[in-house]
């Protein structure tokens, strides 16, 4: 087992653990972490391992996730880097109960602060882009929250790269608070974010938190071409492709070869993607046993990383398969240093 390391959250100086604990299941009945009492052991174990980074949202469990998390961290609030989200509707009868606009933002942040029992949120996420609110309104409204002291840092989740880039540029040009992080789905079976979102994050110095790092259960060792599909699996048969099974096969073989679980190896691969962008997996759990397994951190050897990369590599798409240098300069080799 390796020791938990820390990363800087984008351009900020705040240090977050290299694993983020996802608390989406906190507060749901009959799912193993339904109450503060059931979740307390998991949170304690995470802290003892060096974890300090938490992820929740105002929509998780109808707000119960925030209440449970707030209760658990209240005695040591300053230790935790607490992130929560806004933007998804919390009341279908109210057309303004969701969205990223200022009216939704004002209500959402006040409600989250009340449920969390705190006077500030360390990292406030735009949960998803709503497609209607002007980007300028969102950037200015979020900056106002930072200036008020209710929010310290900003992030944005599940949003196209061009929109995030525009928001960061607007903030920089106007002296407003830019985003420090993005949140995207990222795993061995979901690498499409490597085409646009991760290069953008690296160029703009944004941290990347990856949700579903175990591919919705596909990368836990329960799936493979030689394994019977679990009856209680989260994936229907039609959702599992031959590519998914081929990746799972290589993952399971690497895990068996080094005496680790498939989940540990899948997380290790994601943690190793720092050359692409500063990447932090979000580990969502239903019970303490799952967390204990995920905390069994391993560092993969170059050959193991190569096997996993090759099994899960994306096929190139435009413009990444377009040789712009050839068309711009012909067959000549251009030495820009010599002019």
Biggest sheet character: 8 strands, parallel, barrel
Q: What is the CATH architecture annotation?
A: Alpha-Beta Barrel
pLDDT < 50 runs, ≥5 residues: none
Give the helix tally: 11
Spatial sequence of strands, sheet with the most strands: 3-4-5-6-7-8-9-10
Specify the CATH class: Alpha Beta
Secondary structural class = alpha/beta
Number of domains: 1
The mean pLDDT is: 91
CATH superfamily: NADP-dependent oxidoreductase domain
Could you describe the 3D structure shown?
By secondary structure, the protein is an alpha/beta fold. Helix content is 37%, strand content 14%.
Compact summary:
By secondary structure, the protein is α/β, with parallel strands linked by helices. It has one domain (6-329): NADP-dependent oxidoreductase domain (TIM Barrel, Alpha-Beta Barrel). 37% of the residues lie in helices and 14% in strands.
Q: How would you summarize the topology of this molecule?
A:
Elements: E1 6-8, E2 15-17, E3 20-22, H1 36-48, E4 53-55, H2 64-73, E5 81-86, H3 102-116, E6 121-126, H4 135-148, E7 151-157, H5 161-174, E8 181-185, H6 197-204, E9 207-211, H7 242-258, H8 262-271, E10 279-284, H9 288-294, H10 302-312, H11 324-329
Parallel strand pairs: 3-4, 3-10, 4-5, 5-6, 6-7, 7-8, 8-9, 9-10
Antiparallel strand pairs: 1-2
Helix pairs in contact: 1-2, 1-9, 4-5, 7-8, 7-10
InterPro entries: AKR_Detox_Biosynth, NAD(P)_OxRdtase_dom_sf, NADP_OxRdtase_dom
Pfam family, one: Aldo_ket_red
Keywords: Oxidoreductase
């Amino acid at each position: 087992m390796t020791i938990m390391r820390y990363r800087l959250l984008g351009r900020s100086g705040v240090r977050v653990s290299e694993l983020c604990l996802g608390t989406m299941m906190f507060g749901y009945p009959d799912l193993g972490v339904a109450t503060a009492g059931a979740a307390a052991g998991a949170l304690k174990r995470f802290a003892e391992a060096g974890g300090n980074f938490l992820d929740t949202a105002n929509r998780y469990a109808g707000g119960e996730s925030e209440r449970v998390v707030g209760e658990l961290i209240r005695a040591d609030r300053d230790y935790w880097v607490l992130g929560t989200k806004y933007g998804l509707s919390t009341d279908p009868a109210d057309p303004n109960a969701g969205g990223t606009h200022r009216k939704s933002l004002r209500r959402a942040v006040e409600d989250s602060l009340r449920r969390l029992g705190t006077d500030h949120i360390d990292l406030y996420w735009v949960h998803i882009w709503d497609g209607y609110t002007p980007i300028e309104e969102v950037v200015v409204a979020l900056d106002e929250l930072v200036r008020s002291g209710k929010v310290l840092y900003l992030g944005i989740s599940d949003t196209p790269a061009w929109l995030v880039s525009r928001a960061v540029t607007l903030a920089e040009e106007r002296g407003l608070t830019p985003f420090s992080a993005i949140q995207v789905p990222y795993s061995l079976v979901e690498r499409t974010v490597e085409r646009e979102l991760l290069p953008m994050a690296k160029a703009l110095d944004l941290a990347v938190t990856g949700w579903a790092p175990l591919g919705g259960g596909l990368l836990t060792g329960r799936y493979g071409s030689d394994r019977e599909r679990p009856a209680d699996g989260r994936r229907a048969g039609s959702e599992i492709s031959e590519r998914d099974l081929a990746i799972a096969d290589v993952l399971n073989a690497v895990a068996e070869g080094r005496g680790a679980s498939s989940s540990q190896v899948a997380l290790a691969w994601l943690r190793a993607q720092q050359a692409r962008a500063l990447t932090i997996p979000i580990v969502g759990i239903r019970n303490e046993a799952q967390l204990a397994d995920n905390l069994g951190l391993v560092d993969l050897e170059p050959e193991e990383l190569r096997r996993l990369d090759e099994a899960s590599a994306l096929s190139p798409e435009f413009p990444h398969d377009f040789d712009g240098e050839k068309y711009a300069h012909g067959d000549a080799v251009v030495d820009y240093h010599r002019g």
